[in-house]
Structures are given as C-alpha cells and as structure tokens.
Amino acid sequence: MIEQKTFEPAEQVLRSAQQLMDTVVEQNRNWPGSGVFEKDVNTANVLLREMGNTLSEIILAVADGSIEIVDADRNTAIYESINKAYHLMSRLHDDVRTVREALGKGESQSDAIEQAAIHLHRLTTCCEKTRDYLLNVSRQAAENR
C-alpha cells in the first residue's frame, strides 16, 4: 500500500523549487531582466534531477504492486498523470536552459523566468492531484481486501 511518506521526497523537492522560484522572481523584480545567477541555474538543475528520481521511486512503488489496480481506467489515469509530470519537468528543463543561455549572452531572462514559474506551478498541481489520487486508490484497494 502506498502511504503519504512515499510522496514526502517529491513534496520536499517541490517546496525547495518553489523557494528558489520565489527568490528568482524577487531578484528579477529588483534587477529586471537579470534575476538569475549561475548558482540559481545550478540549483534548479539539481532539483530537477532530484524530482526525476523521486518520480521514479513513485513509479516503482506503483509498478511493484504496492497498490493493486484492477481497473484499467484507473491504471491509465495514473500513468497519464505521471507522464504529464515528466512532460512538465521537460518544459522546466527547457526553461532553465533558456535562462542559462540568456545569462551567458547577457540577455533578459524575464520571459524564461515567467515560463518556469508557470510550469513549476503546473507541476506542483499535477503532483498534488496524482498523490491524492494514488492515496485514494491505495486506500480503496486496502479496504477491498
């Protein structure tokens, strides 16, 4: 059975990512167009790697039978949610790369920062919905045993 603790590493990474985003947005307000520093880009890349690892752990928990999913629609919904999370992470990778390129060229980073904030918000929402759905499915499976 999947439990809340299964999702704690992902939740921690998302909190750290949001703190970084808040810092970057504030820096961009103070220095329009140049709110990101090299250390911020490096931290973002580390957080993206960590998020990928934590999503992999969640997939393993689902795949190893921690929850019995006999309903094909539920199974499809779970994997579609996880796929959406990976897609949003890919978009965040693109945003971070765009910021890094703008930083290297001395160009404005504002648009890429804005896009990253949108994608991070969508990723967080997607992960929360997926967590809630998996916990619900897991509880229902345990009750039906």
Structure overview:
The protein is built from 4 helices and no strands. It has 145 residues and is mainly α. The chain has one domain (4-143): Nucleotidyltransferases  domain 2 (Four Helix Bundle (Hemerythrin (Met), subunit A), Up-down Bundle). The longest helix has 34 residues, at 72-105. The N and C termini lie close together (11 Å). The model has no long low-confidence stretch (mean pLDDT 88).
Chart the SSEs and their pairings.
Elements: H1 8-30, H2 38-63, H3 72-105, H4 110-143
**Cα shape:** elongated
- Rounded radius of gyration (Å): 17 Å
What name is given to the CATH topology? Four Helix Bundle (Hemerythrin (Met), subunit A)
Number of helices: 4
CA distance, first residue to last residue: 11 Å
Please outline what is shown here:
The chain is mainly α and 145 residues long. It has 4 helices and no strands.
What characteristics describe this protein?
145 residues, 4 helices
